Amino acid sequence: MRTIVAGQVPRSNGRRRPTLRSVDQAWEAELRLPTPLVELRDPLFGRCRVLLKRDDLIHPDVPGNKWRKLKYLVRDARDRGAGTLLTFGGAHSNHVRAVAALGERLGLRTVGVIRGEEQPTNPGLRRAEERGMTLHYLDRATYRRKTEPDVLAALRDRFGGAYVVPEGGTTPFAFPGLAELVHELDRPYDAVVCAVGTGGTLAGIAAALPAGRRALGISVLRGARSLDAEVTALHRSALRRSLDNWTIDHRFHCGGFARRDAALDEFLARFADRHGWTPDPVYVGKALFGLSVLAGAGAFDGETVVALVSGPGTG
Ligand SMILES: Cc1ncc(COP(=O)(O)O)c(C=O)c1O
């Protein structure tokens, strides 16, 4: 749907073309914000009161932490006159798809640099292409060096000057976006729990929490101890200081990134039975599973925890 609102500029053929600002406003009017904060009644969480922050409902194409992380980044790209967003990800990256959708809606060309050899396109990448994204495959060795000057220069030669968005979209621009999430929390709470991939979402939430509240990240990666240092580095670069109101629990990866084990499967099946939908097993499922184990052991007795649904589930 193309909606034209205020600020149109006339074209010589008599048709009117939306300005960037009007496209923005039309797009933002489609977003479901603020997202609902709904109580989850479930004995799986012991004596902890859980409020689900349903960021998965923001927009089907740019759900959850994608919008929170990219909102101010795309504004910066346009303020700097960028015509192209270039980003990176694996073949199943939600982030790559979200950048394609945003680019299409906001009138920016998009390039998705995909890890690995070209393979038959999966539905996610097909969707990105349908939204106008140019896909470019990099073998794994080169992909690992994607931020080095020679690799970036080769990409620049091929696709022209682009605004480069890092894999996962974690940049200091995530901070104002995630602060908006925290400011939407209009009921009393003690802690926020979220899934951790790169740490950007956790870092942004921790940075915006009022005094006395804490953030707990559940890492979805096996043994990714470097995440703690990465979150601290994000705080130092965005805030010029470190924070002590957050921790990462590394025990609930369930076998590693995108892997699952019997305990996670059992939790998700019970959750689906009770609530009629299944959180995604890669991120939100592990965060809720971790929270249920910790809450069941009494870690949040008598407390209210906001659990972030940072991406869509099924059902
Ligand atoms: C649905 C979902 N939740 C959580 C995360 C983890 O966020 P972050 O990389 O900011 O730690 C991701 C990855 O971007 C994601 O797709």
UniProtKB/TrEMBL annotation:
GO biological process assignments: alpha-amino acid metabolic process
Alphabetical list of Gene3D superfamilies matching this protein: 3.40.50.1100
Cofactor: pyridoxal 5'-phosphate
Residue positions of the active site: S93
Keywords of this entry: Lyase, Pyridoxal phosphate
Source species: Pseudonocardia autotrophica
GO molecular function: D-cysteine desulfhydrase activity
N6-(pyridoxal phosphate)lysine, modified sites: K66
Family: Belongs to the ACC deaminase/D-cysteine desulfhydrase family.
Database matches in SUPFAM superfamilies: Tryptophan synthase beta subunit-like PLP-dependent enzymes
EC assignment: 4.4.1.15
Record has Lyase as a keyword: yes
Domain Tryptophan synthase beta chain-like PALP: 33-311
Protein name: D-cysteine desulfhydrase
UniProt key word Isomerase: no
